[in-house]
Amino acid sequence: MGKLFVVATPIGNLKDISFRAVETLKEVDFIICEDTRVSKILLDYYEIKKELVSFNAQTETKKIAAVIERIIHGENCALISDAGTPCISDPGVRLVNEAIKNEIDVLGVPGANAAIFALSISGLPTDSFVFEGFLPQKKGRQTKLKELSKEKRTIVLYESVYRIEKLLNELNELMPERYLVVWRELTKKFEENWRGVPKELLAALPSKNIKGEFVVVIAPINWKN
Ligand code: SAM
């Protein structure tokens, strides 16, 4: 029986990967990734030549059985995602679960995660926090935001470039006094962050040609800077 390794990869800067992660990727028989073009950049950088099997939320179900079969027959497999820790707002949960059900050893190689990293440099309370990932885009979004407006813990959200302004407008409506930190392009060349209440961030964020990936960290209700 082979093993399944869940391996964290960088969230931007290709150097943010552990020695053990690189070693593991060099040693396994095949690697499951999301977009082979994205993972190839990392693998080429570390001169890793491996079979890449692509896997995403749509194809996961279809491919699980074949992957489990290969592991049962002795091949070691690594699961990676386009960025950061697999299974965190990324595909892989069902594969890990299926491996466990089939008594396959699941081993993790920890590393970067945008939410935890943003939280660690936010200056906001970290003793207790809630990670909501991506908010629903339509149905349930307002309900979730209203629920979060009463949250007593620090909140961490992922947001895409297409909705970051919309999110700040929504936060301005529902929690205008709440202190936030918004991170863009963490660990990358054009990394930046903005701090303040939603209105201040709306004024500071460029309204045109803004690009990249965002993490939003929201202070607990009644938190004072
Ligand atoms: N599995 C990943 C992790 O461990 O962080 C998250 C994958 S999720 C599909 C991608 C989202 O994570 C982006 O839309 C953004 O909200 C956040 N993200 C990932 N990398 C980031 C970065 N370098 N800077 C800011 N946000 C990032």
Topology, pairings included?
Elements: E1 3-7, H1 19-27, E2 30-33, H2 36-45, E3 51-54, H3 60-72, E4 77-79, H4 93-101, E5 105-109, H5 114-120, E6 129-134, H6 141-148, E7 154-160, H7 164-174, E8 180-184, E9 192-196, H8 198-204, E10 213-218
Parallel strand pairs: 1-4, 1-5, 2-3, 2-4, 6-7
Antiparallel strand pairs: 7-10, 8-9, 8-10
Helix pairs in contact: 3-4, 7-8
The structure holds S-adenosylmethionine.
Q: What does this protein structure show overall?
A:
By secondary structure, the chain is of the alpha/beta class. It has two domains: 3-109, 3-Layer(aba) Sandwich (Cobalt-precorrin-4 Transmethylase, domain 1), CATH 3.40.1010.10; 114-218, Tetrapyrrole methylase, C-terminal domain (Methyltransferase, Cobalt-precorrin-4 Transmethylase, Domain 2). The protein is built from eight helices and ten strands. A five-stranded parallel beta sheet has the order 3-2-4-1-5, with helices on both faces. Strands 6-7-10-8-9 form a five-stranded mixed beta sheet, with helices on both faces. It is elongated. The structure holds S-adenosylmethionine. S-adenosylmethionine (SAM) binds at residues 11-12, 81, 83-85, 88-90, 113-115, 158-160, 183, 185-188, 213-215.
Supply the key terms.
225 residues, 2 domains, Cobalt-precorrin-4 Transmethylase, domain 1, Methyltransferase, Cobalt-precorrin-4 Transmethylase, Domain 2, elongated, five-stranded parallel β-sheet, alpha/beta, 8 helices, five-stranded mixed β-sheet, binds S-adenosylmethionine
